[in-house]
């Protein structure tokens, strides 16, 4: 019988490291943002809204979420006073999103906290390290997409 992948030492090592990185980043991100009132995902969404270049469908695609999930997240940000949503003047079927002053303040606080943690995480990586990691991540992503 062919070896079961969970018995492969390389696979176990890689997956263990992936889980550890995710856990460490999550825990340290929570600590770094404890005085911020938006999540990492909301921070990312606020940043994309601030840039103002993408449609809601494009934002959903970049965040790897459905349009329905994005709508819920947008509604929460609107209810919190971080964004303003209004009907598009050119197409009354669409909304334009605008970040509010309160949203900008929260985005800045969150971005500073997350930026410090991100810089710590990638401190000694080289361009070659990035390129190698991206190449491997692309291969894994492609392999998993073939199953869909």
From TrEMBL:
GO molecular function: DNA binding; DNA-binding transcription factor activity
Database matches in SUPFAM superfamilies: Winged helix' DNA-binding domain
Domain (HTH marR-type): residue spans on this chain: 7-142
InterPro entries recorded: ArsR-like_HTH, HTH_MarR-typ, WH-like_DNA-bd_sf, WH_DNA-bd_sf
Record bears the keyword Transcription regulation: yes
Recorded superkingdom: Bacteria
Transmembrane segments: none
Keyword Nucleotide-binding: no
Keywords from the UniProt entry: DNA-binding, Transcription, Transcription regulation
Protein name: HTH marR-type domain-containing protein
Organism per entry: Kandleria vitulina DSM 20405
